[in-house]
């Protein structure tokens, strides 16, 4: 492992990726050469929030107490810490592989797509600039003028070229075709050499980032003296790449094999079982048991929960209250669109429906980042105005 400063100084130095030995038999072919950039700060730490006893708490614990009552250990894998405000979150793990391919192909520009406050678009734009690539973003919005907050502010600061599309256009044309259209335009009209990245970076190439993340987790657990057995791994699912990498990796990695819970924050579970199966197919995945179809393997390795609530990027007051309570109890900031929604849904409706089933278990929540998405929800958080004291000095 190069030191942090060395990695920073040579951001665009190409590395060769060798898949972990426990995975290599299961994939027909690796893209050769299999280039990877080191863009993220890895390994990300694993935190165990320490709940002090209720007696020393300033206020009762509304979330952690539920786990304490059932003797559950909650661990948090901090992929919100992969790369500071620019690169932080889960997308940079995929971009290490995607942008490596872009450089390998000699591209000068990248095109990708997402919602107005897309974490993926922001990470892509910032990473592209760091590598000397020109970022082009297609942002889905129904407002006439884009704002200046959160992810969008960063997109603008790094000078990303932004194209807007409406939800209707997006639904009618589809994200892949929209990326294709802008790629063609930039190629034909401006002579650029472009690299297109699908929604969320969730294709076969990007998903290697989360397969490798499983290897990282395995090595972290192997390195600790404490005997940690993970029973459940929980995370948010939006475009399926994280779910694909984690579910396949956690099922294959011999020392892990927890139950894997992806909480869908858009679409529905069947869509994601299909998406993950498709990504597995594109990766050339073949499973151990030749009698079992890929689709059945995916269903066996992954539970997708419906957690979208009011819909993608729409929050209920309970979800936002959960994020505020969690922040107060742990000092950790979740985001309203993905991580907060996912953990809220899991704690309230999955764990909450049958807490006895989780007694004594270890649950690892994979925090996928996204804090910048909280910036346009501030007013809805209903934070206690009484915490501000006006005193004279
Ligand atoms: C994109 C994103 C996810 C979902 O990951 P997918 O691989 O797209 O399913 C989860 N959390 C955050 C913060 C994200 O930005």
What structural class results from the helix and strand content?
A: alpha/beta
Residue-averaged pLDDT, rounded?
A: 93
Rg calculated over all Cα atoms = 21 Å
The helix-strand sequence is: HEHEEHEHHEHEHEHHEHEHEHHEHHE
User: Tell me about the biggest sheet?
Assistant: 6 strands, mixed
Helix content: 40-55%
- First and last CA, distance: 52 Å
The small molecules bound here are: pyridoxal-5'-phosphate
Count of β-strands: 12
Q: Characterize the overall form.
A: globular
Unreliable segments of 5+ consecutive residues: none
Strand portion: 5-15%
Order of strands across the widest beta sheet?
A: 3-4-12-9-10-11
How many helical stretches?
15
Question: Summary?
Answer:
With 393 residues, the protein is of the alpha/beta class. Helices cover 40% and strands 14% of the residues.
Question: What report would you give on this structure?
Answer:
With about 400 residues, the chain is of the alpha/beta class. The chain contains 15 helices and twelve strands. It has a six-stranded mixed β-sheet with strand order 3-4-12-9-10-11, sandwiched between helices. The model has no long low-confidence stretch (mean pLDDT about 95). Pyridoxal-5'-phosphate binds near residues 119, 243, 335 and 370.
Write the layout of secondary structure elements.
Elements: H1 4-9, E1 15-16, H2 21-24, E2 35-36, E3 46-47, H3 64-69, E4 73-78, H4 84-87, H5 91-104, E5 109-115, H6 119-131, E6 134-140, H7 150-157, E7 161-165, H8 167-173, H9 175-190, E8 194-196, H10 204-223, E9 232-237, H11 241-252, E10 259-264, H12 269-282, H13 294-301, E11 303-306, H14 317-330, H15 339-351, E12 362-367
Parallel strand pairs: 4-12, 5-6, 5-8, 6-7, 9-10, 9-12, 10-11
Antiparallel strand pairs: 1-2, 3-4
Helix pairs in contact: 5-6, 5-10, 6-7, 10-11, 11-12, 12-13, 14-15
The chain binds pyridoxal-5'-phosphate.
């Amino acid at each position: 492992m190069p030191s942090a400063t060395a990695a920073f100084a040579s951001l665009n130095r190409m590395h060769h990726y060798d898949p972990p030995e426990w995975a290599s038999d299961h994939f027909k072919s690796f893209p050769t050469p299999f280039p990877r950039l080191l863009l993220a700060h890895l390994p990300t730490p694993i935190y165990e929030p320490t709940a002090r006893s209720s007696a020393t708490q300033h206020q009762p614990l509304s979330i952690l107490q539920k786990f304490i009552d059932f003797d559950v250990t909650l661990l948090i894998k901090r992929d919100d810490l992969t790369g500071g405000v620019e690169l932080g979150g889960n997308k940079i793990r995929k971009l290490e592989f995607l942008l490596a391919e872009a450089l390998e192909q000699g591209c000068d520009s990248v095109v990708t797509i997402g919602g107005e406050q897309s974490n993926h678009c922001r990470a892509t734009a910032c990473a592209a600039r760091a590598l000397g690539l020109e970022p082009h973003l297609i942002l889905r919005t129904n407002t006439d003028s884009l704002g200046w907050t959160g992810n969008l502010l960063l997109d603008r600061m790094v000078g990303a070229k932004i194209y807007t599309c409406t939800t209707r256009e997006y639904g009618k044309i589809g994200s892949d075709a929209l990326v294709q259209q802008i790629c063609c335009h930039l190629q034909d009209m401006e002579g650029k050499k472009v690299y297109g990245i699908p929604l969320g970076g969730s294709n076969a190439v990007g998903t290697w980032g989360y397969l490798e993340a499983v290897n990282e987790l395995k090595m972290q657990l192997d390195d600790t003296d404490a005997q940690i057995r993970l029973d459940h791994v929980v995370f948010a699912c939006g475009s399926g790449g994280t779910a694909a990498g984690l579910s396949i990796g956690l099922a294959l990695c011999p020392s892990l094999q927890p139950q894997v819970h992806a909480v869908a924050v858009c679409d529905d579970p069947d869509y994601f079982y299909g998406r993950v199966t498709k990504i597995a197919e594109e990766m050339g995945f073949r499973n151990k048991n030749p009698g079992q179809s890929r689709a059945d393997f995916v269903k066996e390795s992954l539970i997708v929960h419906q957690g979208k609530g009011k819909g993608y990027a729409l929050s209920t007051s309970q979800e936002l209250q959960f994020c505020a309570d969690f922040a107060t109890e742990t000092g950790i900031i979740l985001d309203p669109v993905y991580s907060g929604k996912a953990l809220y849904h899991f704690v309230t409706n999955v764990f909450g429906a049958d807490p006895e089933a989780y007694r004594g278990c270890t649950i690892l929540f994979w925090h996928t980042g996204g804090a910048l998405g909280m910036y346009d929800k501030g007013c809805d958080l209903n934070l206690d105005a009484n915490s501000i004291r006006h005193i004279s000095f």
